[in-house]
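User: structure tokens for Sugar phosphate isomerase/epimerase, please.
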Amino acid sequence: MKLGVFTPLLSQMSLEDVFAKLKALQIETVELATGNYPGNAHCKLSMLEDASALKAFKRMFADHGVSISALSCHGNPLHPNPVQAKQAQEINRQTILLAAELEVPVVVDFSGCPGDSPDAKAPNWVTCPWPPEYLEVLAWQWDEVVTPYWVKRAELAAQHGIKIAIEMHPGFVVYSPETMLRLRAIAGPSIGCNYDPSHMFWQGIDPIAAVRILGDAIFHVHAKDTQLYSANLPRTGVLDTKPYTDERNRGWIFRTCGYGHGAEWWKEFVSTLRMYGYDSVLSIEHEDSLLSPEEGLTKAAQFLNEIVIKEKPATAWWV
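Assistant: Done. Predicted tokens:
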């Protein structure tokens, strides 16, 4: 297993400087954003139309001995605003094509969330089955919007040998192992997940138990932690809409790895991932509002470098 970094936290730096910084942290793998919510500071989709730029980009990574674990374009391709949906969909399409050119196996995205009808102006995330109109909205979303889009997008990815890793995130139709596996059953095996344990913690889902449920549907993994505040949770519940920077009053916040859960938990998490067939990259994502990107990345790298299982076990004499 390798330690990697999702590079938007280093968006103010050139790729050359990113490589130098990561080398000092014993990191040789990156996840690059191509647009939508994370931006595209280090990976331009325009390379698809510029063979020389694409060749130079590949050469830069080869010269520095750095690999790319995934291209990420987290957006809302199902947004009820057709302009926003079209933009997110086009960035996803081009990201799949660029991943194929770069021989990067995984594209990360959100599932997206439609509105409540063809006339909606904003997404509508359904979180309960009653009153009954909510289930009617949910059925319409999956039947009329989610399924048609993701079936076709999965076909495109499969044609180019790419896997799409959907990050389970509240606010979108895929936010839990159950909804993830529902989409996979509909769209096929080229659809799986980008597994971020921080999003499981605050929903009350045991992230290690969820690995056992998801199994080979895990295509990529983010390394990010969550800290729960028992003093606030009885008041806020887990669906806390206060800004992430209102740390004193929130029921939970995102944390750098090790600041929400200790080494014992992370060792079991990494071991369970390997047990269920995932032996690729832990991609550090920094969203800790109490630590700067510089400090958060450094502390996460130091913490996880002592935890990741970097070598495959030798065959034992009794096997």
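User: Anything notable?

Assistant: The two ends are 22 Å apart (CA to CA).
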